[in-house]
Design a protein that fits this description.
The chain is mainly alpha-helical. It contains 13 helices and no strands.
C-alpha cells in the first residue's frame, strides 16, 4: 500500500512542472533550463561528497563522453519542452511530450536491434494517430501552436534518447554521482548555447528565481526520486503507466488556473495517446 501512495504522490508532484514553468513567465527557455539543471545538480552534490568522504561511493569529475551525450539530450529535452509550453497549450505540450515511450521503442529497434511485436506496432500507430489529431487540427493560432506542438514532439524524442543512453550506465554507476554529472553536463551545454546566443542570464526577478528553485526541488528532484523509489518496489511498467496521469493532471490544472481549454480534436487525440502508451506497456509485461 505504501508504494502506491508514494507512486501517486510522486506523479502529483511532477504534474506541477508545466504550471510552474508557465508561472515563471516569458523568461528565455534556455535560461529556465539552465537554472533548473544547475539547482538540481547543486542540491545533489553535497550528498555525493558526503558519501565519497565516508568511503561508500567514489566520485570523479573527469568528463565521460557518454555522460556528456546524455547531458546533451537532457538539455535538448528541457529546452524544447519549455519552449513548447510558451508556444502552445499545456495540454498539447504535455500530452505530446508523454509519447516518449513510443520514440524509445523506435530507437530501441534501430539502435539496439530490439524487435517489436505486432501489438506494439499497433500501439505506435495509435499514438501517431493521436499526435496527428492534436497537432494538425488546431484552428486557433495555427502557426504558433504547430511550432509548439512540434517542439513538444522533439522533447519526447530527446527524452527517449537520454533514457536510452542512461540505460547503459544505471547499473554501472551509482545513481547520485551519475545524476550530478549528467545534470552538470546538461547545465554546461545549455550555458554554452546561452553565451553563443547572447541571451541575458541574470535578468530574472526574485519571484522567477523562487519558482525555478521550486521547479528543481519539487518536480525535478522530489517527484522523480519518489518515482525511482517506487520503481524498485513494484513492476516498472506500473510506474510508467501511472506517469501518464501527469498529462491528465497538468491539463486539469491548466484549465483551472490558466483558463486554457484545448480544441475539440484534443480529447480524441489525447485518449488515443493514453490508450496506445498504456497498451504498449501492458503488452510488454513479462513475468519475472
Amino acid at each position: 500500500m505504501l508504494q502506491y501512495l508514494v507512486l501517486f504522490f510522486g506523479v502529483f508532484v511532477i504534474s506541477w512542472s508545466s504550471i510552474l514553468i508557465r508561472w515563471i513567465g516569458n523568461a528565455p527557455p534556455l535560461v529556465i533550463s539552465f537554472y533548473r539543471l544547475l539547482f538540481s545538480a547543486l542540491m545533489l552534490l553535497p550528498f555525493v561528497i558526503l558519501r565519497r568522504r565516508s568511503g561508500s561511493q567514489t566520485f570523479s569529475l573527469r568528463p565521460n563522453r557518454f555522460f556528456v551525450l546524455a547531458g546533451f539530450f537532457l538539455a535538448l529535452h528541457f529546452f524544447s519542452w519549455i519552449q513548447s509550453l510558451q508556444l502552445t497549450t499545456v495540454a498539447h505540450s504535455i500530452f505530446l511530450e508523454s509519447t516518449h515511450p513510443i520514440f524509445a521503442l523506435i530507437l530501441s529497434y534501430f539502435v539496439l536491434k530490439e524487435r517489436s511485436t505486432l501489438w506494439t506496432k499497433l500501439g505506435i500507430a495509435l499514438a501517431l494517430a493521436g499526435m496527428y489529431l492534436i497537432v494538425a487540427t488546431e484552428p486557433q493560432n495555427a502557426g504558433k501552436h504547430i511550432t509548439g506542438d512540434l517542439l513538444a514532439i522533439l522533447s519526447a524524442f530527446s527524452l527517449a534518447a537520454y533514457l536510452l543512453v542512461a540505460r547503459f550506465f544505471t547499473r554501472k554507476t551509482a545513481l547520485l554521482p551519475y545524476l550530478v554529472q549528467v545534470y552538470g553536463s546538461a547545465a554546461i551545454i545549455t550555458l554554452v548555447f546561452i553565451l553563443l546566443r547572447g541571451t541575458p542570464l541574470f535578468h530574472l526577478t526574485t519571484n522567477q528565481l523562487a519558482l525555478l528553485f521550486m521547479l528543481a526541488l519539487g518536480p525535478h528532484l522530489t517527484g522523480h526520486s519518489l518515482l525511482n523509489w517506487a520503481a524498485r518496489k513494484m513492476p516498472v511498467y506500473l510506474v510508467n503507466l501511472a506517469m501518464q496521469a501527469e498529462a491528465v493532471l497538468a491539463s486539469l490544472y491548466a484549465a483551472w488556473l490558466l483558463r486554457e481549454y484545448p480544441g475539440w480534436s484534443f480529447v480524441p487525440g489525447a485518449l488515443l495517446i493514453l490508450l496506445a502508451v498504456s497498451f504498449i506497456f501492458l503488452a510488454r509485461e513479462k513475468p519475472g
